[in-house]
Design goal:
The chain is α+β, with helices and mostly antiparallel strands and about 325 residues long. It contains 7 helices and 9 strands, in the order H-H-H-E-H-E-E-E-H-E-H-E-E-E-H-E. The strands form 2 sheets. Strands 4, 5, 6, 7, 8 and 9 form a 6-stranded mixed sheet that branches. Strands 2-1-3 form a 3-stranded antiparallel sheet, with no helix packed on it. Strand 7 and strand 8 form a beta hairpin.
Length: about 325
């Protein structure tokens, strides 16, 4: 009696398991029929993917990546297909001896790449054109940080307005080229900041990008850092435009008055020295000295995009 009950339970468990497996497989599909024929003729086990419930409507085709992969299947590698719309090759595992697999694909994700900037605060009130010119004549070539001129935030805003979309697309391309790995690159160009800060004008800005990505179900989860550097030089006061400064007053303040002062000093010294019979050198003229304008700031990025660029809004 005991053995009969045990056998009955075992039989019941087998029936439940069998019915469950049957419910989880599409025995009428072409792929299942071909696999079953291969099992009958050659003893090839049915692929697990043919026995399990498909968790998604689409999948990413994956090959083994070796020399045994058929060219037609290698061409499918990384592409996305729908279970109800197979490619000309059929689904992975349908051809005899095919070792390709179908990775579940998460459709309709909210693609995004977000860039957050830091350290872009200004350190003082915005400089006027007169301040830039004054430093040219009196700063002795001392370098100036953009934030110290009070213009960093406005320049960064103008820069990001021009390059943000391009920067995100470049990050997306880097991620796809380095799936599952780290990546790095830099982008450098000259930008016209004339209407933002006339005194700075054409400015070279470089962005160094470094990050990593993880691939999952046909998507890439990405994150990383960006280091920005701005380089410019104030060379000639006339570069800032005559219409934005009082040229006459600038000349008087920075050239005429210093020259008059030096002339008076030299004349008095020459008269004094000649009375002592000492020969003097020639009169000097006060001129300005170019100075570097630089700054640095940083950023972070993170997001999630499709690994397949053909269905992505990035790249």
């Amino acid at each position: 009696m005991h053995e009969h009950l045990a056998g009955g339970r075992a039989l019941a468990r087998w029936r439940i398991s069998s019915e469950t497996r049957k419910a989880h497989m599409d025995t009428g599909s072409i792929s299942y029929r071909r696999a079953f024929e291969a099992y009958i003729r050659k003893g090839i086990p049915l692929a697990l993917t043919l026995k399990e419930t498909r968790p998604t409507t689409h999948y990413v085709w994956r090959t083994r990546g070796d020399g045994k992969v058929r060219p037609s299947h290698a061409a499918n590698d990384g592409k996305i297909f729908a279970w109800d719309d197979p490619p000309p090759t059929g689904h992975p595992g349908e051809d005899y001896g095919c070792r390709c697999t179908a990775e579940p694909f998460l459709a309709n994700i909210d693609e995004r790449i977000e860039i957050t900037l830091s350290d872009i605060s200004d350190a003082g009130s915005p400089w006027s054109s007169r301040d830039f010119v004054g430093h040219y004549f009196n700063g002795k070539g001392r370098a100036v940080k953009v934030r110290d001129t009070g213009h960093l935030h406005s320049i960064v805003s103008a820069y990001m307005k021009e390059v943000e979309v391009k920067l995100k697309n470049n990050i997306a391309r880097l991620s796809r080229q380095n799936r599952g790995n780290s990546f790095s690159d830099y982008y450098e160009n000259t930008y016209d900041m004339t209407w933002t800060t006339f005194s700075i004008g054409d400015t070279k800005i470089r962005a160094d990008v470094s990050g990593s990505c993880a691939e999952r179900h046909g998507t890439l989860e990405i994150s990383g850092d960006i280091d920005f550097r701005l380089e410019d030089e104030f060379v000639d006061p006339l570069d800032i435009g005559l219409e934005v400064i009082d040229l006459e007053e600038t000349i008087i303040e920075n050239i005429q008055r210093p020259i008059e002062s030096r002339i008076r000093e030299r004349i008095n010294r020459i008269i004094s020295d000649r009375l002592r019979g000492i020969k003097q050198d020639r009169l000097g003229i006060h001129t300005g000295e170019p100075y570097p304008i630089t700054d640095e700031w940083s950023g972070q990025f993170e997001g999630r995009i499709y690994a397949d660029s053909s269905i992505s809004k990035f790249g």
